[in-house]
Amino acid sequence: MARAALGDLDGKGFDVAVVGAGLNGISSAQHLAAAGYSVLLVDKGDFGAGASSRSSRMMSCGIRYLERGQSMWAFLRQPHFLYASLKMARAAMHTRSQFINTAPEHVRQVQFAFPIFDTDHYKPWQVRLAFKTLEILGPGDVPIDFKFVPPSGIAKLPLVSMMRDRERMRGAALFREYHFDWPERVAMDAVLDAERLGAVVRNYTPVTAMRRDTDGAWRLALADALSPGAEANVRAKVVLNMAGTWIDKVNALASDTAKRKICGTKGVHIAVRMPPECQGHGVMGHHREGEHLYCFPWRDFHYFGPTETLYEGDIDDIRASDDEIDWIIAEANHLFPAMNLKREDVLFTWAGVRPLSYDPRYPKGSRDRIVHDLGAEGLPNVFAMTAGPIMTHRSAGQVMCAKVRGRIVPSGPAQAIDYSARAFPENQNSPPIVEHWTDRKLADLQHVAKTEYPATLVDAIRRVGAHWTQTMAVEAADKAAQAIAPEMGWDQARAGKEARDFAAYLAHTHRRGPSGLVPRGQ
Q1: What's the domain range around 468?
Q2: Residue pLDDT, tens place only, 414-453
Q3: Residues 6+ apart with CB under 8 A from 261
Q4: Nearest to 484 by CA among 451, 516, 509, 447
Q5: Are residues 44 and 60 in the same domain?
Q6: Is residue 417 part of a domain?
Q7: pLDDT tens digits for 271-323?
Q8: Do 141 and 192 fall into the same domain?
Q9: Which of 47, 278, 337, 391 has the most CB atoms lying inside 10 A of its own CB?
Q10: What CATH code is carried by the domain that includes residue 277?
């Protein structure tokens, strides 16, 4: 589907402009439109293509919130942390329940294991207490299925039985977890619902300037990354800066007094094949620096990660380095000594930067989700959100809607929001995009090209999830480009270029070549 010309927006006014179309920004636009506000949603790139597409995809039950310091007694010494942890754990359980009940097509259930060693700060009874607490905090409709396996049962557990120091295990906690399958699809469904509710949605539309008019409204200058020279000016009573890692850059367009809001940490993952009996099973371990290292099942393979390092590089070019790949391989082999994982075993990688809240007290940023009212920094009626994980994107939209409601009233009537997943048309006679993953067909790709504003083959394949497979669909680039060429208006030369660009994107961003991981230094 072709976007309207940017010039059609010139001079238009909106109640709210949302800058940044990651999951939190999209959710904000969706909830605001449902509340009756006129909304403009723009992003300098594609919908859901930033940190939202680079996450671990976990929809956690919140067990990590109940782990603090050297032992559970740390909570008793600092009761305010106990309150905060219980609050976050409760939010995780309720978020998990609401999403799974309203969009079950977007999640996959897995069994997770948390082995407990005699060197750990937490004893088995404390782990049991933590999971019981989660069950009490949650609504009870999506069970955790907690089970404690004693040392005698460890040998029967996939993954856990392969770990080092089995003789030192006091047991293992088994529980039900979920992951998003896949975040880009969640984002696109919310974009389409926001549009159904009346929002104007535009990808590849960077904001190039912001200034406040004499009547208090904000004037935003927009460009079109796909049509050089095209521009428009729009007005909005309230601006939500939901640009994630780019928040500080957006604020700087309007004020040189806005303070730093973002501290980015880089998370890298590698995808590998594990033994067939491990499919559907994940494990939560620790690397040698003491932080969590996950082995998470994904379709018919697994991924290890994430790293967590301070990132001060180019936020427009984030990918796994050779050193980071080597580090995860070494830590995975330390966790699973018999695996003997090598670089050539890595199927692909991905990396993202978490837009955490800048706080000088925390060198790697604060994970507290914060809504910043920027009025005191020369940006009245501008709000920004930092450290919003994708798991809680719906509540983020509700929170930002409440902030707007505190400033202006909606210009239109409220409507019912629709959280459900949008189904692709029936296409049983269409061939699959890739032979090893038959869930998505070429007809699905054509439907996306017609209805979901992709600009490139990369965009289209992201919307159907075919790149989150063992080969990242690199072998399907030519036939995929040919399949959507009529809908996209591409001639043969353009279709060939799109296929080559897709392969180049995989090689650069995901380190995936035609037959495996690209060589070092590339």
Answers
A1: 432-509
A2: 999 999 999 999 987 999 999 999 999 999 999 999 999 9
A3: 247, 248, 251, 357, 358, 372, 384, 386
A4: 447
A5: no
A6: no
A7: 999 999 999 999 999 899 988 899 999 999 999 999 999 999 999 999 999 99
A8: no
A9: 47
A10: 3.30.9.10
